[in-house]
Every structure is written in structure tokens, then in C-alpha cells.
Amino acid sequence: xxxxxxxxxxxxxxxxxxxxxxxxxxxxxxxxxxxxxxxxxxxxxxxxxxxxxxxxxxxxxxxxxxxxxxxxxxxxxxxxxxxxxxxxxxxxxxxxxxxxxxxxxxxxxxxxxxxxxxxxxxxxxxxxxxxxxxxxxxxxxxxxxxxxxxxxxxxxxxxxxxxxxxxxxxxxxxxx
Length: 176
What we know:
Elements: H1 17-23, H2 25-30, E1 33-35, E2 41-43, E3 49-57, H3 63-69, E4 77-81, E5 89-91, H4 93-101, E6 106-113, H5 116-120, E7 125-131, E8 143-144, E9 148-150, E10 153-155, E11 160-164, E12 167-171
Binding site for Mg(2+): 115
Keywords: Lyase, Magnesium, Metal-binding
Enzyme class: lyase
């Protein structure tokens, strides 16, 4: 089955998080650039991804995640504060494919994913705490475009997120 390629601006891929840290030491010192703790696992074909942040705050319910990924991503990164829950998955293979087809650069989940082998076949970058086979609830509970926390690091709508094999950075401004 062939999936249409979205017509969006090119993804930001010409960066290395180590270089961004080295080149922006003052931003690290004053808190305008933060490094997420190395607790999130990588899923999907895209190891390196970056983009402007869109946020969701949910708990064991992925209806808002689906609703957001159904919209054009335009190279943005969806950051989902799932409260660190390890009891249900917030993203699975279908949502990863939806994110890919709608032009999202990546998804970062403070929670679990499922269908990891399906996700790994998608041209998308996804970071999450772990895998869990049980899907999330579908009640629609949660908040959009609010300040969230991922592994204890605050993330705001409109921030920029950079992820590669060395780590994940969150910046208040575009760096690359």
C-alpha cells in the first residue's frame, strides 16, 4: 500500500545535538536551552528530527493524540505529556503512520508506545519511555497547547525540539 507524501517544508535535519550544546552554552546556562534526561527510547526510521513544538497533556487516553496527528504537521513535533504512565500506550503503529502521512517531523511521548515493529517501519521519529501492549482509552480527556513536562523538563507550545542519537534538546528559539 502506497502512502502519499505530504507537501510540506523540508524537515530540519542538518544539526547534531552535541554541536548545538557546544554552540549555545549561554542558552544552556540561562535555561533557554534544556537537555532531556536520557530516559526515552527511539522508535521509527527517523533517528534525527526537529521542529516547532505542539503540546498535549493526557493520561492513559490517546483520543487527543489521534485528533492532533490527523491534522497537517507541517514539520512540527508533537510532545505528549503522558504523566510518565507505563500502564497504557499512547501511540501505536496506526498513529505513527498517520503522523508520517500528515507531515509530522516527530512525536515525543512521556509514556508508552505499542506496535513497535510497525512504528519502526514508518518514516517518523518517535521517542517514548517504553512499550506496552494495551492501548490508551478513547475518552478525549486532556489539554492542548499547554506547558507540559517531559522527564521533568518543561516544554512550551512554540518551543523547538531537536532529537538525534545523542539526545533531545528543547529550546525557546530555533537553533538550526
